[in-house]
Design brief:
Layout: H1 3-29, E1 37-43, E2 51-53, E3 57-59, E4 78-85, E5 89-95, E6 101-107, E7 111-117, E8 131-143, E9 155-165, E10 174-183, E11 189-197
Antiparallel strand pairs: 1-7, 2-11, 3-4, 3-11, 4-5, 5-6, 6-8, 7-8, 8-9, 9-10, 10-11
């Protein structure tokens, strides 16, 4: 092998090691570890703008025949849902098969709670376990239509996005949502459904 060939081979080998090293470093920055658990609160900005809330939505029904939403009988489980993101609030619009409808609105929050944990139920393929993740916001609420009787100053609404992934979190990590109305007064009730990041 002549000198030029040797130099080219050495340069190629060095470049390969460098690329491999960079790739490994980037991968390890997102690695999770066994027993990992993170709980913290950060400033809310535009996190929810990346998501599409899929229809239909389901209302959690208990074993009894009564309906968890005051004044709405008989029990109904299935609803269509659309979500609007306004400057000061996020509004969920629900409608059942009988065209009974209403909206539930969250005030735009100041903060969002982040939770990640290793559930120790997945196989580590070299980059760590698949973490269970939640993004949660709880705010004052407003409601109209079928939800009018379940609103008030003592009521709150909580939105939770659920998913799985490594230590680097983006919208693709989340697949499901839960929306719960709770507080003093009428019974607690919960909707749930699927979501997708834009472009998926």
């Amino acid at each position: 092998m002549n000198l030029v060939a040797k130099c080219l081979a050495a340069a190629f080998f060095t470049a390969a090691l460098t690329v491999t090293g960079i790739s490994s470093a980037l991968a390890c920055a997102c690695c999770s570890f066994v027993g990992q658990r993170s709980v913290y609160v950060q400033k809310f900005n535009t996190q929810l703008d990346e998501f599409s809330f899929r229809s239909p939505a389901k209302l959690v029904l208990g074993e009894r025949d009564d309906h968890p939403i005051p004044g709405m009988e008989p029990p109904v489980e299935d609803f269509t849902v659309t979500v609007a993101r306004l400057k000061d609030r996020i509004t969920f619009s629900f409608r059942d098969a009988k065209a009974r409808a209403g909206t539930l609105s969250l005030v735009r929050p100041q903060t969002i709670a982040i939770f990640e944990v290793d559930p120790r139920d997945t196989v580590d393929h070299g980059l760590g376990p698949n973490l269970y993740k939640e993004w949660t916001i709880t705010t004052a609420m407003a409601g109209d239509g079928i939800f009018r009787r379940s609103t008030g100053p003592t009521r709150r609404i909580t939105l939770v996005l659920h998913g799985r992934g490594n230590s680097c979190t983006d919208s693709s990590s989340f697949t499901h949502w839960t929306l719960q109305v709770h507080g003093r007064g009428p019974p607690t009730y919960t909707f749930y459904g699927e979501l997708a990041a834009n472009g998926r």
